[in-house]
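Inhibitor of Bruton tyrosine kinase structure dump, as promised
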Amino acid sequence: MLHSGQFKYNCKGSKQENVLKLAVECATRFQLHDLVEKLKLFKFENRTLVLRDPSDLFPPSDPLSPSSDIPCFDRHCCQELCDVAISSCDGALIKAHKCVLAGRLEYFQHMLSGGWIEAGGSTPLQLPMPGSVLHEVINFLYTNSTSKPVSYDSVEYWANLLVVADQLFIERLKQCCELGLTYSLSLKNAVELFGFAVTYNAPQLKKVVMSFIVLNMCSFIESRSLEGLSDSLMKELIEFYKTKMDIAHRVITPCSSALRESMEDKVMEIARNHPNPWKGNSPCPWHVQYTLSIFE
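structure tokens r here:
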């Protein structure tokens, strides 16, 4: 019943009961205050529940910043109920709850709930990633946020985390990493981040980096930083430059006094009749004749 569309209530008989009013009374009787507040966002019209204002039920928010109203899990809570251990490539061991990992990520859902060997084994799960990155990934699955703010200036931190997020298909974590890398963007690492964004399919980072390069094209040409790009990346950057930069241009046309095609034969004839350059003080007679013929 609680959704952003419309819910048809098919009541039998001629009498149309206000189901919304009945639901509010029932929720009030059982002291379900949160449900009462949600029900007040709807109205009952023509045997239909209609949402008064969709923005009330789904307020606009930044998808990359966690909201304090959204509950999250605490990995350090109920340690005695941890039923899975994950080991990194450098030997770091992290304990977690299978229900949280399987519910938050499809990769762990298939691993822990399917027919994989890891599902029934008692040994820790081995994941090919450093302990620091594994710690961030597990914490993100619990809290839906990163331990570092997006303004944290560390290319290595965000790049390593983005690689793992791309491998495990954690889209929101990948978006956070892309945003974090944009805060570390500079003239020194822009070309490198451009290739990195293409390699690991980071479209938002790629667009920001290309815009940064285009706006600072003079500096990149002067430092010859773009020479390290491959032909495909250079072609893509050129096409982006053409579409994003407003370039003033005009069609080059000959001036009014330029030679016309009909005069070429006359010029060649004058050149044959006067092969030697004119050395006198007075104007050259064939030059005067040619000049007068132009303005005839």
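The domain at 63-165 is CATH 3.30.710.10 (Potassium Channel Kv1.1; Chain A).
lmk if u need the other ones
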